[in-house]
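Objective 1b. Sequence-to-structure analysis of AraC-like DNA-binding protein.
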Amino acid sequence: MLIEFVTQPQFNFLTAFAEALKVPVVNNELQIPSSLGEGFVRRVDLNDDFRLLIHRYRLNQELILKRIGSTEPASFISVIFYNNEEPGSLITDGEQKQNFSRYNDMAIQIASNNLDSLITFPANAEIYFTVIGLSATRLKGLLELNRPDYLINTIVNPKESFLFYESMGTETQMTLKQLSETQSENGLGGFYYRLKAETLLYQVFSQLHNRQSTSHNPVNKADAEKLAIIRKAILSDLNRPPSLPDLAKLGGLSETKMKDLFRQVFGDSIYNYYQTARMEEAAYLLKHKNYSVSEAGYQLGFSNLSHFTRLFERHHQQKPKKYASGG
């Protein structure tokens, strides 16, 4: 199933999705029919230029969401919180989900409305993500910055396209879980959703604020596609450091532009990003594939296990052996 849409402020995704599924929208909520899967999509209008769209469902066929960037100036912002695991499993101590996410670096996307995107969800996948859409003017009023921030100024006073990714912490996971739960009819539902939406925005913009950026380069569709290719190449081989010349050639960028754009979009250098991915992969191998510490270390290219242990502890605040045992 393909849902194609243009990211204009007046676009109603819920209506378009309902038409594609041939189901009604009742009280701003769409229920997935049992013949197609299960779950819901819920829209919450917090203001004319501020809304939430909560996706939580499973379809028995592949779903492709194709967003076509608007030709209008980048005045409307989408903040997308991705997590395709059951939300209740994200922060509990029960059995681990089978679909454990190794890499958390792209869990939150902040993008202008003039960039394209293509998201594919396999059939029978648990689809769980939330979108906050709001105008740049609304966001600027909410943030009320009391000291200059070049990066955030790029977003709230958009003169060019932008794209940023952030990781998702436990507090954000908890807020998303609360958003997906049905609210009691006590007359305060709008206030509750506004509070949670503003909490999510505070959490993600606190992370962006901590980057302390001093410059910004426009990111067009071609740049975004090239960065996706480079990221994929880095993650495809974690047992040796990436070659910057090879990555630049693969992406069709100069080394300087590649390094600057990568740091701008992902918030870290290519090498630090690679090391973080190694440690996320190590955690996955230890806890979900039952690798020993030495097996995980050697799998990821470490010949010195003491060095592996130090890096792992720095990243996860635990030694790998203790982490593997659930300590």
